[in-house]
Amino acid sequence: MSSSPGKWLSQAEKLVKAFANKHGAVMRITDRQLSAAFEIGSLHALLRFYESQGYRLEPRNLNDDGEYRYLTSPSGNPSNFSWVEAIGSDGEFEIRQQVRIQSHIDDDIAFTPDIVVLIKGAAIEDSK
Fold first, then answer.
1. What letters, b where the CB count within 10 A reaches 16 and e where it falls short, cover 24-55?
2. What's this model's pTM, rounded to 2 decimal places?
């Protein structure tokens, strides 16, 4: 017996709300956690895009257990975190999170995008 998508969605929403009401204290997340989850989701959406364009993706700088380590704060040192190498017909790139970019206009101008695509091996200095 199949039901309409509207009924299924409505039932799913009711179940989620009931679960959240019952276990809300356990399920609450901070704004920082929500922001980090959004950033990680955005990274994976970008990776899916590159993959759909024919790039081969290779995770790099995994921890000792072979796990990927996300960098979702500009206060972290990028060399301590993982990134993804993207290899395509037009070259090799690194897809990284939270890498400070210094302006070519003035050394005192810098910003830290959530995600950046760099040419493989681009210099990332450890300076503040």
1. eeeeeeeeeeeebeebeeebeeebeebeeeeb
2. 0.73
